[in-house]
Amino acid sequence: MRSTLILVFVLNFSGLLFAADIKIPDGYREATLKDYVHEEGNFPKGKPPIKVSADFNGDGKQDIAVILIKNDGNGWALFVLLAGQKKIFKLDEITEKGSIHMGIELVKPGLIKTACGKGYWECAPDEPMELKLMLPAINYFVFESANSMFFWDKKASAFKRIWISD
Predict the structure, then answer these.
(1) Whole-prediction pTM value?
(2) pLDDT tens-digit profile of 22-59?
(3) Cross-strand partners of 121
(4) E strands, 22-165, where?
């Protein structure tokens, strides 16, 4: 059974970045099942949520968001690889030894209530209570815990982060 899970993982994720004609950033590699937390209460074994694809910047091409492992084993990072621009954005980096405990999932366009809009804290002057997404976004989370979202800001030609829960 374990061999089957590893094969499924390899087929789903192997060559993931090369398919988009984008090179894995220096110092990083694609994750394996061994890199992921499998403890009680964490992500389901064999199904680590570490890759999503969508047109995040609205150019009509499928981009990839992926969590990659540092080669030296001291952490991981969330990257978005914009296929149309062949550009790589590092959105977050965790510099601790151990298994990945973060996940990502696709957020569809629509109205999203932010953490301050839910009453977790008072909204800062530049922090909206709600965010109207026109493009898909990336939910970045700890299983059953805090999460934030990364979305494309066309004016800035960059990703922005907003907290959804604490």
Answers:
(1) 0.81
(2) 678 999 998 877 777 655 555 656 567 889 999 999 99
(3) none
(4) 28-29, 51-54, 63-70, 76-82, 87-94, 102-107, 110-113, 130-133, 137-142, 147-153, 158-165
